[in-house]
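Go through this chain for my students:
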Amino acid sequence: MMEDLVIGIFEESARLKKEFVYEYSEAILNLGILMAKRLKMGYKIMICGNGGSAADAQHFAAEIVGRFEKERKGYPAVALTTDTSALTAIGNDYGFEYIFSRQVEALGQKGDILVGISTSGNSKNVIKAVETAKNMGIFTVGFLGKDGGKLKEIVDTAFIVPHSKTARIQEVHLTLEHALCNIIDLYMTGEITQEI
């Protein structure tokens, strides 16, 4: 039955999310609290990725700047994927692999957080952004897939979805982003008081 194809997609996605959260639940909570604390201190979150991961970066930033589920003030988050003039100028003048690192250099400061999203773990422009961020004292996080690639070795915290299908990896990443947004909201409204 063709319905089995659809059911299989949903079951695979659900299984991956369940396996992922059992492995990373404590790390997710800790990162959400760290993000909330840094935002409260006036630092920002920068997010980058390519293709579907660029869309995830924008989605994640929008939830932080606007709100997720709780009414609260807006906090600074920037998707480094949205300024087409900067992206095309940097890509043209320096090369595509520098489109994010140049923005990190220009916009970032020590105490900020950079989230690099890469389903392969090997996106050159995300790697360059992370390297630049680390040199600036910016805390780095990887939302990764497959075996984590080169990024798992250089980020401060790695979240790896060990699967070969990009779509399944992105579905877990989106749920991870929503979980972090929820933790940020709850911390900012005083409903989470745990410290890390």
Notes: The chain has a mean pLDDT of 96. The two ends are 50 Å apart (CA to CA). DSSP finds seven helices and five strands in the chain.
